[in-house]
Amino acid sequence: MANTDHVEWLREGRDAWNGRRKLVKFKPDLAGTDFREVLDQAFLSAPHSNFFSRYDFSEANLRNAKLIDLDFSKANFKSADLSHADLTLSSFDGAAFDNANLNGVVAAESSFQDARFPNVEWTNAILRDAYFAPDFSEADSLSPSQRAEISKEPRITLDFGLQASFKEFFGTHKANIPTVAPKKEPTYLVTFATNRNLIREREWITFGEQRDSRLHYGACQVLVPSSHKVGSLGSPLWKRLLKGDDRLQIRRTYHLTSDLYWQFVHKNFSELFNSTPPTVVIHGYNVGFEHAVLWAAQIGYDLGLMRGINLFSWPSRDQVHAYQADEAAVEASKYHLASYLLDFIENAGGRRINVLAHSMGCRCLAGALEIIGSSNPEKLKRFNHLIFAAADVDQDTMRNVGAHVIGNSGRTTSYVCSRDKAVQLSAILHQFARVGFLPPVFLMDSVDTVEVEKGGLLELGHSYVSEAREILMDMHQILKSSTPPEERFAIKPGVAGHWVLKN
């Protein structure tokens, strides 16, 4: 039986399929798959469709699969197992079959012009009226009966857009039009885990605002324009019209199985790499999935985390007036986050990990740490740095959590501000002091509280942590160099036993 995830990924299109295979190594299991059933009827009825052209099927298990009446031109079947597969009426022009197993295949009336077959087994293959190039160099590997049944003429058909013999049918002349190679866009990698509901939209996937009972895993490639400015997701429309588009944009989202995700994490953040420890970020209230990915990419890129950043996205409603719904969602999500962090610790190749949470996401982190501290206290020492930014967390709750958790992990930093209106409103709503708002200033052993009161930064409001260059520089020293507060150049001692951002 085929892997159902692998079959579903076929529907996302060539770019997503091949991109996923470049991102993480796996052998597709597509045994018995009927490839026509993968496509919807609208696509099958489209003329000259070439959906599976140039797909990377190398090392795939395609035993007994049905690759019938479709276009696989220039696809990569190197070392694939196609034994007893049905390839009837399909185009494999220019495809690569190096070291593939073609024993028992049925390839009647298919086209293999310019395809390559070094070291291929054809035992019991049925090749009736199949067409190969006149100079088919591997013909000696066929039996006399197989050579007798192959076609001597190219087959021309327009039934489903086969590319077989299209060069002969339309001619090989191309207009002498100069072409410009597309400019390669720099992208930044955000891997993610989320308990949001999965939404599939033909060739695209995303995640919604509803809770799921399990975690989904994946990765996003985010475009970072050369005009990107530190602390910015992009300029307003009027500036973009004048100076060009400088927004971060999601180029591709890949859904991964848990096994492939942790395989990638282990490889990417192994101790073999002399890089910053892996960093997990947790977004706050009123944030949709796409915005969370862009936020994570901006922080990771601006902090210089060049091996990517890891996002835990809980199902925020992405609505200003859904505060109570987000409170319920973040409370339920702490169990998923605890499980995710424990798995991350096990798969990080011996590395300690950093965790940065913002706003209501700090509640999720505090709750997850409490769960880990109760069930796996020995794992707490695997946390390198914990950063609570503009934390919408009750101060007494944080003290109770911190008494058992924070002192047993690495350094903990809390960024606070007296003009953060969002956290101030939360304090008024709950009628209890919040960690991220002062007065009163939150003080606790093993927690470095940094007050943000510098003129010019306050207008950033609740998002000051990700948008202020000075704070990003301070976090850079924490995450990259483990620099203690007394040695960091962006802060100075305050009067209440905490630290203050320098003016």
UniProtKB/TrEMBL annotation:
It comes from the Bacteria. Coiled coil: none annotated. Transmembrane segments: none annotated. This is Alpha/beta hydrolase. It comes from Agrobacterium deltaense Zutra 3/1.
